[in-house]
Amino acid sequence: MKRAIISTLLALIILLAILLFACNAVVMHEAKGKVYNRIEDVATAEYGLLLGTTPQARIGGNNYFFTYRIDAAEVLYKAGR
Question: How far apart are the C-alpha atoms of 67 and 50, rounded to whole Å?
């Protein structure tokens, strides 16, 4: 009985790891050519969409995803992108 539980848990952990790597591979494949590291590589556009998030973290303090997203949008705006 104990061996069956351990085997089942091990199989679930392995399956979860495979699923995690598969999801990561799909995201990496779909993002290829759509992620930019240099402002000069970003195409100019008349309009832009900034997806938001809450400025506060769930536990308190700053939400750095929000901060970095706003900072990046400001840099792109000032660069005319």
Answer: 12
